[in-house]
Amino acid sequence: MSRHVSKIGDPSPLKRLDEPQISKKIRLEIEVDENMSDNSPDRNRRANFSNVNGVNRNLNIHSVKPTTKKLIIKNFKSEPKLPDDYNETTWKKLSSAVIAIQQSKPNEYLLEELYQAVGNMCSHKMASELYKNLFELIDAHVRSNIEKFKTETMDRLLFLKKMNDTWQSHCNQMIMIRGIFLCLDRTYVLQNPNISSIWDMGLDLFRKYFMLHTLVQTRVVEGLLMLIEQERQGDKVDRILLKSLLRMLTDLQIYNKAFEQKFLQSTERLYAAEGQRLMQELEVPEFLAHVDKRIHEENERVLHYLDSSTKYQLIHTVEKQLLSEHINNILQKGLDNLLEENRLHDLSLLYQLFSRVKNGLQELCHAFNAFIKKQGRTIVIDPEKDKTMVQELLDFKDAMDNIVASCFKKNEMFSNSLKEAFEHFINQRTNKPAELIAKFVDSKLRAGNKEATEEELERLLDKIMVLFRFIHGKDVFEAFYKKDLAKRLLVGKSASVDAEKSMLSKLKQECGGGFTSKLEGMFKDMELSKDINVAFKQHLNINTPELMPLDMTVNILTMGYWPTYLPMDVTLPAQMVKFQDIFKEFYLSKHNGRKLQWQPTLGHCVLKARFKAGQKELVVSLFQTLVILLFNESDEHGFEYIKAATNIEDGELRRTLQSLACGKARVLNKIPKGREIEDNDKFKFNNDFVNKLFRIKINQIQMKETTEEQKATEERVFQDRQYQIDAAIVRIMKMRKTLSHNLLISELLGQLKFPVKPSDLKKRIESLIDRDYMERDKDNSNQYNYVA
Amino acid sequence: MSASIADENENTERLDDASKNEKMFTLKKWNAVAMWSWDVECDTCAICRVQVMDACLRCQAESKKDSYGKQDCVVVWGECNHSFHYCCMSLWVKQNNRCPLCQQEWSIQRMGK
């Protein structure tokens, strides 16, 4: 066994004659078996190399045995010869067998015999002739096979089927033939690198004639394209036929040239038209769903019958025609609606599809950004909607966050863009959003608000902080927040100290200690006031026990921490003045070097009142108290008298009287009746007052005040900003020593955290020049010098 | 002024009258509010140019705060009745023991508390 295997590579075919026949038979069987078992075209291609493998395998066995017995082989005395006509007779045998195979007829010779004959011819230097003969035989067969198709005028599908049959039988025949001519493949073909193996020769010939007859070729290709087109239109087609024919093209190595290009072109044409049409006809979500379906289908197509090398180009073509071309259209036509209606599913699809095409996500992000800016602007800009602005902003932010998280895969580009857009639109309207956010926080922190649990409130505050972060004019927020905080603290209306503290710490985290130090100071004042009041009570009990019982508490505020209130002098009843004086004396004795200024606008009282219907307690402001107490002396007073007696500022007094005589709880009756307070009006004690509550709070009327307050607050913010601008200018000039006007302005704009107009900056620069902090350069009026 | 005193006298009389046939309104509870500030002539410290109600520049920069963020930066009055931040003045007197405003010998009249 090992011996003749080693001779396969032997260049001398003569020496083979002395091999015993039996061993040859064994070898034939083994190898025929091996090759017959694989008859799929796929495997046949590989079979070209199986002889190489065979050698390797057998060589392994060969290296096994060392023998002790010496075996000597001698040459024959006379060289053996073949019969002279051996070549012709053998070829006759072989060719008849090949023709039988080609015509699918039974073969009259044993395969074994044929194989051996081929082997013999190869050993006797007849291989090249044999190969040539075989070549001609196959060439003739393939030519006649393909030429048959030239004249065919049958239905395309039938044509394709027939072509497929021809191809299949060609493959089968070539497998058989190769089996017989295996020796040829293994010796002659292997030794001559420029000759192709029998299988390849078959393919080459098939290709040659297939290409030669362009009509046949185009019919096949067009037939294929037609089938695919039919399938794209939703018909069922014979996928196996498609697959087999496309395999044929691949095997003939003309898939690329003959089919792929045309296929891609027709794909492009189809989808270009479809894209244009559907873009017009369908709504965006439906269009997207359709595109998704198409991409899915094409992927299937690749999976089922196209060559996988086409996949990239095919999908790319579909994406290009259905998506890239329409990016702007889709975004313009559909994105806003999808976002507005919060259609998460469609948005996810949109994102997923756009992420497939070049620049798709950038464009989407861009449009997303523009939508937020546009939508946000409508929320912010309209003064009519001020009441609901903050809630709407919160909802809007939630919705957009949700979309980024669930549809846009938390893509950072999108979340950054979201932030940028919010920051942009929220500052489109100066000051107002900041003010409204502050007021919104106030409404949530105020005691009346019981709708939220602590955790909910905490979450809400966190969300508000996110909005707050976007706002440029943080000082406006601070001013309004401070004003509201003052009210909450002084009226004792704060819902929870914890929530207040938590909000404060959030602000501190966001803007630093400088921002909140005054707010913190306000809390500190409230606590110090508590201690002082305890001490004051003890003081009263010890020193003036004879004084009438009045529960007096005083909140002592540090000037500068709190908003400034208009100082107002009013006339208090003697009894109250006395208490005030005692307290003042007490306080100043504890705190050296201070002065106290009473703030009557902020005071409030509880009054016991007796009506015909019974006792009541009235919770009222100090001003209301002063007016009501006047009615202890007489049941009726004129406006002028009340004004003189209390010394309350005119507008304030009118509002106070309105609250007492025209509000819900009318302790006084106005004569004549009416909403507005006139100079000649009289007021009478309403003894018939009834109310189902025992403790009644009479609210001050504040409507007009808030607009004034608001203006004052804004004014104060502006004042504060001037100092900040001054400080920034001096800081910059101190560092640079000299600087041109433009550079100074641009550096200022970089440093200042609130929006400013260059004209305001100019004024501040002038003012600083006046105050000798800096000067204009003598030679260049556009240049400033720092003055130390 | 005198008129208002007269008013109040009248008030108390009336109150007494009312207590006989029971007053219609009596004050039970009073929550007053007052604002304190340093009792100074000039509200800016001439040394650091910061309002005396705020902490002086140095303290602001160092942020020496207690738990509430209130800076412990009190005011001091000299015999000349000029006032400054205590921190500012204590640095000043190391160089020159005179009031920076009137050049009088500096001696502390009182301290803020």
Descriptive report:
The complex is a heterodimer of chains A (788) and B (113). Chain A has 788 residues and is mostly helical. Helices cover 66% and strands 7% of the residues of chain A. In chain A, the strands form three sheets. Chain A has a three-stranded mixed β-sheet. In chain A, helix 6 (111-123) packs parallel to helix 9. The longest helix of chain A is centred in the last third of the chain and has 34 residues, at 703-736. The N and C termini of chain A lie far apart (110 Å). Mean pLDDT of chain A is 82; it is low at 1-61. Chain B has 113 residues and is α+β, with helices and mostly antiparallel strands. Chain B contains three helices and four strands. In chain B, strands 3-2-4 form a three-stranded antiparallel β-sheet. Strand 1 of chain A pairs parallel with strand 1 (25-38) of chain B, so a sheet runs across the interface. Chain A: Residues 432-661 form the Cullin family profile domain. Chain A: One of its GO terms (cellular component) is nucleus. Chain A: Pathway: Protein modification; protein ubiquitination. Chain A: GO terms for molecular function: ubiquitin protein ligase binding.
Question: Quick recap of the structure?
Answer:
Chain A: Its main location: cytoplasm. By secondary structure, chain A is mainly α. Helices cover 66% and strands 7% of the residues of chain A.
Sum up the structure in keywords.
heterodimer, A: 788 residues, mainly alpha, 5 helical Cullin repeat like, 7 domains, 3-stranded mixed beta sheet, 66% helix, disordered N terminus, B: 113 residues, alpha+beta, 3-stranded antiparallel beta sheet, 3 helices, 22% strand, elongated
* Sheet/helix structural class of chain A: mainly alpha
Proper CATH architecture of the largest domain in chain A: Up-down Bundle
Helix content bin of chain A: 55-70%
- The number of helical elements of chain B comes to 3
The major pleated sheet of chain A works out as: 3 strands, mixed
Large-scale geometry of chain B: elongated
Under CATH, the homologous superfamily of the largest domain in chain A reads Cullin Repeats
